Every structure is written in structure tokens, then in C-alpha cells.
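Hey, sorry to bother you again with one of my protein questions. There's a protein on my desk that I can't quite get my head around. No rush at all, and the record is pasted right below.
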Amino acid sequence: MLTIASYNIHKAVGADGRHNPERILDVLDELGAAVALLQEADTRFGVRTAVLPAALLASRGWQAAPLADQPRAMGWHGNAVLLRGPVTLAHAARIPLPALEPRGAVMVDIIAPHAPHAGAGPRLIRLVGAHLDLSGLWRTRQARAMLAAMAARPGNPPALLMGDLNEWRSGGGTIAALAGRLAAVPLPPSFPARLPIGRLDRVFAHHALKLAAAGVHASPLARQASDHLPIWVGLADD
């Protein structure tokens, strides 16, 4: 099973008010994630700076996809993608979003191996990570922009969209827009981390992807590391 996570890391500041990048990576280790779509992975204003140092990522076996538009940043409007293990990066792109405040999404194509017993070669998967607007009207427009960017990119592999969509309502316009093309994956609440009541972090998957499992990671460490709990999906080998 290939585990892909999405995690709003709150600039690596936990519930105790401490900035602790190592703790974020410890949570991803608990998950056994091979890919992590991150939100709030850079400082927000001025010269954007990655909150997870490059040397720390390398020491833990992570590679950051080349998505930054500033030399000290790791992502695009705080959205970043980490990969490790047998997963390789085929393509990475930024997705500009219509917005009142600075917002963006990121898209990567990854090559994920099948397990040896599956009897198939590597598979291409498209991943989109996003942190959407607080305004419902703009969130809906942003959802449509992401779908358009996914369709415009050549290849059309099965896609997985994950992130902090800032949508509290299951019937909100953002959900409806995405559900027209992708299937919503049911998940428990993930926000706030200490006592989750909101399903702000969501997953939408193409029908061709076989999900072996999906969930919200609510370990004691995850409840401390950020104000959001990470969400995850496990892709079946065949």
C-alpha cells in the first residue's frame, strides 16, 4: 500500500506554541507516508522561508518537489510536496488561483511502483495539493481552476486532490464543484487537532484509483504538532 498524506503543518508551530520541524516529520513517520502534500510549509509574509530546513529533510530521506518561486521557500503560497522511498517525481507545477488574498495550489505527477506480486509496471499518478480561501465564493472558483489545470496537463493519469479546503459544509460550492469530476473520500473531522469538529481537510479521488484505506491520523503526537491533524489515503497495489 502506498500512503499519501496531506497535512496543514501550521508553519511547524504546535499546540504548545513551540516551533518544532522535527515533530512534523515524526508524525509523517508515524503514518509511513511516501508522499506528503503540505500546507503552510513556508512563512506567509515578506521573504517566504521554508519552515522545514532542507538539511533536516535530507537527513530524514525526504525530497521536496521544485515548486518554490522564491529562493528560501519550499512551496508555492505555502503548498509543498515531499517525496521519499520508491516514489519518483515526473513533473511539478504551480497552479495560480483566483483569489482576494494570496492563494495557490500545486500539482505533481509521480511515478509509483506496483508491488512485485501485482505483476505490473510503474504507474503515473497526478496529485494536487491546495489550501483554499476563507471565502466560499472564491473557494468555488479556485476548485474550478484546479480542475481546469489538471485537465490541461497532458497525460490524463488518475488524479488525487487533497488539502485544507477551508470548507465546513458538506454541501458547499467547493465540494459540489470538485465532486463533478472526482469522488469525495469520506473522512472524520481533522480540525482543530486537539478536539476535531471540522472536516476542513478533504480528499477527492479519480474512480480509477483503488483506495485500500483512508483516514485522519490522531496520535498523541499529531494532536500536539499542528492545529490540524494529517489526513491520508492508502493506494492499493492492484
Summary: The radius of gyration is 16 Å. The CA atoms of residues 162 and 202 lie 6 Å apart. The chain has a mean pLDDT of 93. The helical segments are 21-31, 54-59, 136-152, 173-179, 220-225.
